[in-house]
Amino acid sequence: MIRILLACAGGMSTSLLMNKMKDEADKRGIEVSVDAVGEKTIGDHLGEFDVLLLGPQVRYVLKNVQDVVGDNAPLDVIDMRDYGTMNGAKVLDKALKMYEEFYNKKVGE
């Protein structure tokens, strides 16, 4: 199971995207857990995620979050268009690609 954490200002808007990503993963038969939190609590969730994606509205904290996460997991900012349209499929694709590149293994292995 791939554990994806989404973080935004309060965890509210990413929770909508979280549900769309879960639905898409179910359609594909991919086991994922997707959780949404406020960016200020990311440090409380270290070790609980394999991939971390930030909402575009909090991209300004990217450097600080990189310092907190270190080399423990891949981290990036969600594309503004994909976020704005709540495109769960594209954001899931991004998270799966990040997982495969970081851990050097295919999803499903």
TrEMBL record:
Cross-referenced Gene3D superfamilies: 3.40.50.2300
Xref: Pfam families: PTS_IIB
Keywords (A to Z) from UniProt: Kinase, Phosphoprotein, Phosphotransferase system, Sugar transport, Transferase, Transport
InterPro entries tied to this protein: PTS_EIIB-like_sf (IPR036095), PTS_EIIB_2/3 (IPR003501), PTS_EIIB_3 (IPR013012), PTS_sugar-specific_EIIB (IPR051819)
Phosphocysteine: residues carrying this PTM: C8
UniProt xrefs under CDD domains: PTS_IIB_chitobiose_lichenan (cd05564)
Taxonomy, superkingdom: Bacteria
Domain PTS EIIB type-3: 1-105
Official protein name in the record: PTS sugar transporter subunit IIB
